[in-house]
Amino acid sequence: MEKEEIKLEDIKKIQLDILIYLDKICKENSIKYYLSSGTLLGAVKYKGYIPWDDDIDVILLRDDYTKLVNVLKNSNDRYKLLSIYNCKDYYYPFAKLVDSKTILIENSKKIKGMGVYIDIVPMDGYKDSNILKHIFDIRIIHNLTVRRFRIKNCIRGNFDYMKFRNKKVKHKGIKDFIYAFVDYITLPLGYNFWAKVLDKKVSSIDISKCDYVGVRVGSFGIKESFLKKEIIEQELYEFEGLKFTSFKNYDLYLTNKYGNYKKEPNEEQKVSHHQYKAYWR
C-alpha cells in the first residue's frame, strides 16, 4: 500500500505540535530554550512562519541542551529526540525532535527513525573574546561534519547543493574534486564519528565560565556568536497564535545573523532552504 504524502501546510502543523511538546517538556524540567534563525525572524515580523519557510529552529545553551537530551533519551512519547548520542547513523552535530508517526526523506544519507522534525541546536562557550581564532580551531572538524552530508549528495547523488542555495561558486570543479577525495579517505570512520569529535571539542568548555557564547556547530560562525550577558535574557513571542520563548534582545541576534532583517527580501530570496518529502507511517 502506497504511503500518504503529507502536504506542506500539514507539515507545518506537525512541526508546531512538536514545538508545543518541547515547550511543555522544557517548562516541566526548568530548561531554557530560544526560538532561533528563521523561526525567530518569523515570530518578530509575521507572528508565525515566514511565508516561504518550512522549518522550526530552537537554540539551547549547552547545559540545557545536555539536560534536554537526557530527559528525552528514554521517552516513550510520540516525539523522539534523534542525536549522535542515541542513533548510530545520525551525522548532524545537533539534535532533531521528530514525530515518530511520520517518515521524512531528505536528499541526504538516510537516518533510521527520521520523521518531520524541528532542529534543536546547542550554543557553546568561547574561552576568550578571540572568537575568530576559536572558529578556525575547529574548521577542519566542522567541514568533516556539517558538510559531509552535502558532499555525499553533491558528488554521488543528483542533488546539487550549491545550485539549490543559488550560490555562484568559484572553481566549483576543483572544489568538487577535493570534496570527493575527502569523502573517500574519511569514509571508513563514518558520518557519526566526526559529529562526535566536533561535539566533544566544543562542549568541553565550561559555558558558565565564558563571557562569549555561540552556535559553534553551525555554519554561521561569528554571526551566531555573542557576549553572553547581552543575549541570554528571555522574552515571550507570538508564533502561530501561541507564545514561545526566545532572546529578549532579538534585534541583536537577527541583525548579527541576517544584517538588515527588516528589509523585505526580493522574490528570488523567497525560497525554502530544504528539499524533502514526508509521509504518514
Q: How would you portray this structure in words?
A:
With 281 residues, the protein is an alpha+beta fold. It has one domain. The strands form three sheets. Strands 1, 2, 3, 4, 6, 7 and 8 form a seven-stranded mixed sheet that branches. The chain has a two-stranded antiparallel ribbon with strand order 5-11. A two-stranded antiparallel sheet has the order 9-10. Strand 9 and strand 10 form a beta hairpin.
Write the layout of secondary structure elements.
Elements: H1 8-28, E1 34-35, H2 37-46, E2 57-61, H3 62-72, E3 79-82, E4 95-99, E5 102-106, E6 117-126, H4 131-137, H5 139-145, H6 148-156, H7 161-164, H8 172-186, H9 191-203, E7 212-214, E8 225-227, H10 228-231, E9 234-239, E10 242-247, H11 250-258, E11 276-280
Parallel strand pairs: 2-6
Antiparallel strand pairs: 1-2, 3-4, 4-6, 5-11, 6-7, 7-8, 9-10
